[in-house]
Amino acid sequence: MKLSRQLPLNALRVFECAARRMSFTKAGEELGLTQTAVSYQIKLLEETIGEPLFLRRPRQVSLTDAGERLAPKLTEAFALMNDALASVGAALSETLSIHSTATFAQQWLSRHIGNFQLKHPTIAVRLATSATLIDFTREAADLAIRWGTGNWPGLTAHRIMRMDFTPMLSPKLAEEAGGIREPADLLNLPIISAGDEWWGQWFTAAGIADPGLEKFPRNEFGTQTMDASIALAGQGVAILNPGHFGEDIAAGRLYQPFSLMCNDGRDYWLVYPDSRRNVPKIRAFRTWITDMLPDAEP
């Protein structure tokens, strides 16, 4: 007996089912095949092995000695494979891998993810942060929080937070400056990350076309969290998204001197591959985060 190099898994599966049911017809019903297709697969397996596996009689089949030896081992093998797949599937379904921008992870997700886990105690969360856009075809992640316009081919995207921006500073610094009455007053204070394009957009919207931002150091601190920390320490004015710092605003640690907010068309989005939109753990997180954020789109 000489097995072919490529194991005929389809034929083995058909034989196992026919041997267990002792009927080509019943095997076809279980597997969704015609009786002719079942007969063909078993014949293919017999030719591969070089031994008959069934004795064919009118309206009845029985196993040969070779079939008797093969059938229980195949039943055990397929059971082991099913168990292996189930264990892998269970492990994957219990771990939700999230890729997020650092600011969103630090300022919102880290403060609320405990609520998600209270609602879904069987789902563990693995969080990674980066300023780069994740490539779902190359990196292991179930979903991502991205900043942009929401137009990413092959991905389902839900807007979850508007990325509005406005100047913010500590109340103590505003008091030391004698109050902030008009936008031009901000230019008498240190401007944090003056090279950020948001500053120019906001001052233009506020009626100051040339605010002279070039006179300030062109520092780049990488995240809004860093800029906000400097502002909280009373060391300057930062241009921030109020949605990230609601607790600091409510507690009086950060002060928003003007109601004017701008938006450059880029917001925060929850994204995942189109093909995985019905995965239970992804559906669970999508429902949770869109319920939690008032501006989110389900």
From TrEMBL:
<dbReference type="InterPro" id="IPR005119">
    <property type="entry name" value="LysR_subst-bd"/>
</dbReference>
<keyword id="KW-0804">Transcription</keyword>
<dbReference type="InterPro" id="IPR036388">
    <property type="entry name" value="WH-like_DNA-bd_sf"/>
</dbReference>
<dbReference type="InterPro" id="IPR036390">
    <property type="entry name" value="WH_DNA-bd_sf"/>
</dbReference>
<keyword id="KW-0238">DNA-binding</keyword>
<dbReference type="Pfam" id="PF00126">
    <property type="entry name" value="HTH_1"/>
</dbReference>
<dbReference type="InterPro" id="IPR058163">
    <property type="entry name" value="LysR-type_TF_proteobact-type"/>
</dbReference>
<comment type="similarity">
    <text>Belongs to the LysR transcriptional regulatory family.</text>
</comment>
<feature type="domain" description="HTH lysR-type">
    <location>
        <begin position="7"/>
        <end position="64"/>
    </location>
</feature>
<protein>
    <submittedName>
        <fullName>LysR substrate-binding domain-containing protein</fullName>
    </submittedName>
</protein>
<keyword id="KW-0805">Transcription regulation</keyword>
<dbReference type="InterPro" id="IPR000847">
    <property type="entry name" value="LysR_HTH_N"/>
</dbReference>
<dbReference type="Pfam" id="PF03466">
    <property type="entry name" value="LysR_substrate"/>
</dbReference>
